[in-house]
Amino acid sequence: MTAPASEYPGERLGRPTSGRGSIGRPGRRILALLIDWTAATIIATAFFGYDQFALPEKAGWTMFAPMIVFAALQIIFIPTIGGSPGHRILGMRVEMERGGWVGLWRPIVRTALLVLVIPAVIWDADQRGIHDKIVGTVLVRA
Fold this sequence. Notes:
By secondary structure, the protein is mainly alpha-helical. Helices cover 49% and strands 7% of the residues.
């Protein structure tokens, strides 16, 4: 026996069709990711420098500085302001599936999976990535 198809993303989660509390759509999510990655790159470059012509063996760990800063932004801002700077700028927030504070461990696990990329680009019918499903969170419009 199969479950009935949803009319819209988030229906199975009891979320509204649009407006506050509705599922954050892909366009906003991608733009938020670009905002966060740009901010992380600017911060990493300001603190750790940038050598466009460095080979990976000479660049060392600074090659990963933007990703480390990106992860730090996610881990710090999701539990404190409800989302990354990109999420908040675009009017979204990360919430628990059934409401409540996301806590401290969920942003860490969610970010670790987000940095791996694949869990974030595989979505279910509610447009939730595997990284959100595993930790029980949902990205919604604020």
